[in-house]
Specification:
This protein is mainly alpha-helical and 213 residues long. It contains ten helices and no strands.
Amino acid sequence: MIMEITFTVLIAYLSGSFPTAIIAGKLLKGIDIREHGSGNAGATNVLRVLGWQAALIVLLIDMFKGFAPVFWVAPALSQQPEHTVYLQIFAAIAAIVGHIWTIFAGFKGGKGVGTSAGVFLGLAPIPLLSALGVFVIIVWLTRYVSLGSILAALAFLGGLLIQRFLLHMPVPDVLLYLGAVVVILIWYAHRENIKRLLAGNENKVSFQSKKGA
């Protein structure tokens, strides 16, 4: 079991660490995305600097970075079926950590939202869709992607709790723990954004296309 966990975590972390936004900046404009916009190596900053088309591609790849370790790597490495779900949890956390603290960019990556969405695409699709709805509504009304992200994380965990305790659906304890860990990671990654939101000087996002993106 130890070897299964070790290989799963290593592969998942490396998958999450793939610096999608940085590569997009280099390929599309020959820039370091971390030196433009908010300075963050994530899909939101790609939206600001390169436009929505590039941001969509980056987001989809970031989601795949979380999806692949959880739904392909962990089951493939599991030697016993009852261990698979635990390997998936380790893979999920490792992939998200890899995205936030990527080894390929000085341990400074994105905020983990896209990769988290990929992780939960199959593990908890209904709470994920609810969180996506919250994200879209908040960003549409306020133009604050950071606010949408941190509230969507809470909405996701809330969706899991509602399924488990109000609707009495079979939600494993380990999935609830994972949801709580993801909320902590996403909120921690957005700590500077939260400070700016409270101070009233957080950057708003524009949905206009960037020429030359």
